[in-house]
């Protein structure tokens, strides 16, 4: 507010259009400056520097000049078996969480859009995981998955589905699916709320017309709801995919990437390279490679969806 | 036939979403003896509260909660101070800079954190801000800012331009009309944005992990993770108790935002 105070105010009338526009431009600049400066210093600048680092051999402890190494980091990344292993895990994680979370959220949103009892209670409950700190979500699920004191083993045993305790997060083949379930649980609220908002904006007349034409429930869902929801679906699944492929904290708390790297998502891999082993340049390379992959995948996907929609 | 199936499905969802939270609560109220029993129970037979006390004595919960609070409050105040004028400009005047800001909001969602956190860490190190709360605050503000700008400019847009124009016709200056007319209508949006910034900062883990290496400056999420014990000693009761305590502010603030979001803008506009 102090910033707006020092602008001299003059009535807009009586000024030429161009003059007014340049004055408005200056005003905009002044108003935006306090936001632009930190964004440039702490966000855009570091981002550009990060891209530059990807082409250097920067190390954490070394303050001396780092030398430019061209594309050799990228070459190393391409032949790094550990990276590819974590890339594969990252893809499995991001695709399964995004798809399953979308399907689960769509089902829940459809239910919450129906005139059911307890609907408002369920709508509030849906939001609770959203309000929980990610670290708490990770710790909470560790309690659920705990081999001896956890509730999951005892629930499954009581249901007769299991005859011994499983150490879910320490089992080579089960850890990743177990972590994926937590990912779905964590992301469901947001996706559900977005889809629910989308559902509520579908014009009622379309359903009435569908009803008149004698379309079945499934038919109405397929021919009215889905096409109407398409822009919302494209946006939220794209964002979910990007968030999931960049996920770090949740899995760090759950498994720290273990057992034996079975849940080492790419960002955990990069974090270890940078802040455990100190290879800043190499970790930045992974970041750049990821931007390229994500933009390539999503750019194409969004572009095609938009073209179809038009 | 359809209704019962729908209720069944809804029940399934509710159980899936609620059972981990119920289990967290149950674990927080159990003694370690009861926790060691072979068949875990949903409802503690002898509920105790000592886990909460133990949580405080085992880790520096109070200190780290205060540090989290300081960072979160500073983050939300700074975010509003910086974002409010900018969002006003963004909403009211399309220009190259405001388009840049919108683009930045979108782009900032896509970039992997590692690409920014390494150089940012180097910047903070050269400014002597690593291992300091101001350093973490700067990082938090930077990462909350794009979305805060986005939220705020939406709220500004929702205030009808005509209101300002009418005030100008009545002879009120820009400042006067901003303070007397726009600001009150904007208040709910500002509160919602400030709370969003607060919760984001309060919950944030990764940047704290990178920026704060020294245990003496650890924020709450970092301290919580310590309950899992690098020493291999995991005390489940205090861990659950501390987790519950750390969730309370988020839940409270979220409840407030909920009410604000529903009634806020509409009520404000009608009153104005």
From TrEMBL, chain A:
InterPro entries: ABC_transporter_permease, MetI-like, MetI-like_sf. Keywords: Cell membrane, Membrane, Sugar transport, Transmembrane, Transmembrane helix, Transport. It comes from the Bacteria. This is Multiple sugar transport system permease protein. It is found in: Cell membrane. The lineage of its organism: Bacteria, Bacillati, Actinomycetota, Actinomycetes, Streptosporangiales. It is a multi-pass membrane protein. Belongs to the binding-protein-dependent transport system permease family. Pfam families: BPD_transp_1. The chain crosses the membrane at residues 29-55, 91-112, 124-145, 174-197, 229-254, 274-303. The keyword Transmembrane helix applies. Residues 1-22 are annotated as: Disordered. The keyword Transport applies. Residues 87-301 form the ABC transmembrane type-1 domain. It comes from Streptosporangium lutulentum.
TrEMBL record, chain B:
The keyword Transmembrane applies. Residues 65-257 form the ABC transmembrane type-1 domain. InterPro entries: BP-dep_ABC_trans_perm, MetI-like, MetI-like_sf. The chain crosses the membrane at residues 7-25, 69-89, 101-124, 136-156, 177-199, 236-257. It holds the Pfam family BPD_transp_1. It is found in: Cell membrane. It comes from the Bacteria. It is a multi-pass membrane protein. Keywords: Cell membrane, Membrane, Sugar transport, Transmembrane, Transmembrane helix, Transport. PANTHER family: INNER MEMBRANE ABC TRANSPORTER PERMEASE PROTEIN YCJP, MALTOSE TRANSPORT SYSTEM PERMEASE-RELATED. Belongs to the binding-protein-dependent transport system permease family. This is Multiple sugar transport system permease protein.
